[in-house]
Design brief:
Blueprint lengths: L2 H6 L2 H12 L17 H15 L14 E2 L15 H18 L2 H11 L6 H13 L4 E10 L10 E11 L2
Antiparallel strand pairs: 1-3, 2-3
Helix pairs in contact: 3-6, 4-5, 5-6
Length: about 170
């Protein structure tokens, strides 16, 4: 990436404090992998290439993404009135994506993104990770743990960013 893009990229700055806290007192090496706007074929290819590292129990993966960026300033105002208030519509949209991610089905996630256009920043790394899990030799289960919105949108003038956290564990 060029210097302008590199200076604007902030995912490592977001990740490192959390990783430092989680692994406090334990030596660790960080290998950052930046996934840009790659094609579905490349997501699958990178997933196949990286799958063998999932099989090594000494490796830990942290995938970062916000979820829905909603509001006119984000150029995304999907609203399903059947859900009630706007913030509930946003939650339903995000939960639909989270449910699909929990299935591990990269194609269903891609279809969801195509159908709803949800503004999930890390959609490409999430897809690569889903392909990694499909191609590794152990069974991994993803479970979402928490969901929040930066604000509860009530009018079309409001805006919000959604956040979700999940864990991927070896399925016993």
């Amino acid at each position: 990436m060029d210097l302008r893009v590199d200076e604007a990229e902030h995912s490592m700055e977001m990740h490192l404090p959390y990783l430092a806290k989680i692994f406090e007192g334990h030596p660790m090496k960080v290998v950052p992998i930046l996934v840009g706007a790659v094609s579905a074929d490349n997501e699958a290819m990178y997933g196949r290439l990286l799958a063998k590292y999932v099989d090594d129990p000494t490796n830990f993966f942290s995938v970062s993404s916000d979820f829905c960026h909603w509001g006119s300033r984000f150029h995304y105002t999907h609203y399903d009135k059947k859900c009630g208030p706007i913030h509930k519509s946003i939650e339903a949209l995000d939960k639909m994506g989270m449910d699909i991610i929990e299935t591990g089905n990269a194609e269903a996630f891609k279809q969801y993104l195509s159908e709803y256009g949800n503004t999930i920043c890390g959609r490409h790394p999430i897809s690569v990770f889903l392909h990694m899990l499909r191609n590794c030799s152990i069974k991994i289960r993803i479970k979402f743990l928490r969901y929040e919105q930066s604000s509860q949108c009530k009018t079309m003038r409001d805006s919000s960013v959604s956040y979700a956290s999940a864990a991927a564990n070896v399925d016993a």
